[in-house]
Design brief:
Layout: H1 2-12, H2 15-42, H3 50-80, H4 90-123, H5 125-131, H6 134-146
Amino acid sequence: TSSQCHIFRELSQNAAYHIIVAVKGLIGLAGAIRVSQQWRKYGVRFLVHENTKVLFCFYYALNIIMAVIFALLYLFELIRLRYECFLFDFRYILLTRCVGISTILAAQQVILVISFERLYSAIFPAHFERNSSKKLALFLALFAVSY
């Protein structure tokens, strides 16, 4: 780990690296705040169907979680640079990065599920209206995330 500590010392003394990490953290924080404001201000009232509203709320939540995770990751990096050779266990880094990347993919999957739901409702409108529910939308959102 002496080579890692040497690299870490170089990074902790590099002002450009500090600026990049700080800017990335601020962008993540600003994104979380902006999406939260948009969700609070506009909500999902522009959507007509309840299933789509549930899925879109899930989409908003995933985007906020993603932005907060990345903002915290860069905040921890800034704090870590203040200490001498403070190395994280790789599992913590892997966990935070993977959760952030998973939420990016899950948010895209939710939009895909909304598209398929809208397609199904256009092809079979009577069946869709009889059988749609918030439970179905929640199941679809969880399925999209787990996939």
